[in-house]
Design brief:
It is a single chain. By secondary structure, the chain is mostly helical. The protein has a domain of 102 residues: Alpha Horseshoe (Serine Threonine Protein Phosphatase 5, Tetratricopeptide repeat). The chain has 13 helices and no strands. α9 packs parallel to α11. The radius of gyration is 76 Å and the shape is flat. The chain starts with a helix and ends in a 24-residue tail after the last helix. The relative contact order is 0.03.
């Protein structure tokens, strides 16, 4: 490295020698200038030298060589400085970390030391406390032991006294036992004698009571039966009178007798009073059926339906109950319910003309005339001389404007019961207009007319 430095110094010396030589040449040149010329100032000469091409080239080379030499000289120093700075930075980072690690190690050592000292101190305090507790307990035990010994002695004395007293009590108990046993025997004998006397008395009294109870029960049963028989006779009488005033609907369908309503109402009131006074009074299905017919002729259709429902509860396949129920429902205007009742009646007894007749009436009310006509014919197949089926059949044909068939049906009804027929057609306004028609005039003549 020193050789390089010497080399660079030589180069610089040569450069300076060249500069000096150049300056000498300039001075010689200046001395050769004619004397007649005007001497130039010193600054001007220097400026000319500096501005000369050679001077500029030399200056440039000197500058480049100086820069290069300076860089070569300073580069190792700079690298060394950078290396030292890196080492310094490393230690600046490492020293705090090492210090922190050392601090934590030192802190842990201190904590362990404190923990050890604390444990030793606590152990010493615990040992001291345990020692004090043992001493206290021992002193209490000794005191309690002395007290226990004293109590034991006292109890021994009391036990001895109690044993003496116990012997005395035992002796007295034995005496009492003997006395009680003697008294018990005496009382037993007395009680047994009294029991025998009471048994004899009770038997006599019981026999008397039994006889009296039997006599009273017999009399009561007799009176009860008589009262029951009387109620049954009264019930039968009322129902029999109701049957006379309100015969079964199947015997006189669609008839109504306003003149007997008051009598029927009075009999129904009597029957209701009888039931209220005698709740045990039993009504059979026939009784409920008669009661329902009575309510029907009274015009109390709702109660009539309740009576028919009671019949159905006891006899679900009662044709009369279902058909009569349908009759009452039709009178109330409940045609759909009436239709169901009549259908049930015709299912139970399809050979009974009343069921088909009632079904036809409901269908007529519902204006289902074709079905009604078919059902009336079914009723007449079973009973051809049934006045009401012929009469209702004629009305259906009349409502359908089939006048010829209507006339034939009405004439048949008139043949069967002319008096009833005349009464009906003269009492109902719907037939009044027929009197003016020649075709139906024959119907309004008295007597039975042949077709």
């Amino acid at each position: 490295m020193l050789a390089q430095i010497h080399m660079k110094i030589k180069v610089i010396s040569l450069l300076f020698s060249s500069i000096i030589n150049l300056s000498g040449n300039v001075a010689i040149a200046q001395s050769q200038v004619p004397a007649t010329s005007t001497p130039q100032p010193k600054n001007q000469v220097l400026e000319q030298v500096q501005n000369s091409p050679q001077s500029q080239q030399i200056e440039k080379r000197v500058q480049e060589e100086a820069n290069r030499t300076l860089i070569e000289l300073l580069e190792p120093t700079i690298n060394l400085i950078n290396f030292n700075l890196g080492i310094i930075n490393f230690w600046l980072i490492a020293i705090p970390l090492i210090g922190a690690g050392g601090f934590f190690i030192f802190r842990a050592a201190i904590i362990r030391k404190l923990e050890k000292d604390t444990r030793e101190k606590i152990k010493e305090e615990i040992d001291t406390i345990q020692k004090e507790i043992r001493e206290t307990i021992e002193s209490q035990i000794n005191a309690n032991k002395a007290e226990i010994d004293r109590l034991i002695q006292e109890n021994k004395m009391k036990i001895n006294e109690a044993e003496i007293t116990m012997h005395e009590i035992t002796a007295r108990i034995e005496q009492l036992k003997l006395q009680i046993a003697k008294n018990i025997d005496e009382q037993r004998d007395f009680v047994e004698k009294q029991i025998e006397k009471q048994k004899a008395y009770v038997n006599d009294f019981t026999n008397d009571i039994k006889v009296k109870i039997a006599e009273t029960l017999t009399e009561t049963l007799k009176k009860t039966q008589e009262a029951k028989d009387e109620m049954e006779r009264e019930k039968d009488r009322i129902l029999q009178e109701l049957s006379k005033l309100a015969p079964p609907l199947s015997s006189i369908p669609d008839t109504h007798q306003p003149d007997v309503q008051k009598q029927i109402q009075a009999l129904i009131t009597q029957l209701e009073d009888l039931k209220l006074k005698n709740p045990q009074l039993f009504l059979t299905t026939d009784d409920y059926l008669k009661q329902g017919d009575a309510f029907f002729f009274e015009g109390n259709y709702r109660e009539a339906i309740r009576s028919y429902d009671e019949v159905i509860k006891g006899q679900e396949d009662s044709f009369l109950a279902w058909s009569s129920r349908g009759w009452a429902l039709r009178r109330m205007g409940k045609f759909e319910e009436a239709l169901q009742s009549y259908e049930k009646a015709t299912q139970i007894d399809p050979n009974n003309h009343i069921g088909w007749y009632g079904l036809g009436n409901v269908l007529r009310e519902l204006e289902r005339f074709d079905e009604a006509i078919a059902v009336y014919h079914r009723s007449l197949e079973i009973k051809p001389d049934f006045f009401w089926s012929w009469f209702r059949l004629g009305r259906c044909y009349m409502l359908k404007s089939e006048l010829k068939k209507a006339l034939e049906s009405f004439q048949k009804a008139k043949e069967l019961d002319a008096e009833r027929f005349q009464k009906i057609i003269h009492s109902k306004e719907e037939f009044h207009s027929l009197q003016e028609q020649e075709y139906f005039r024959i119907l309004f003549e008295n007597g039975t007319e042949e077709k």
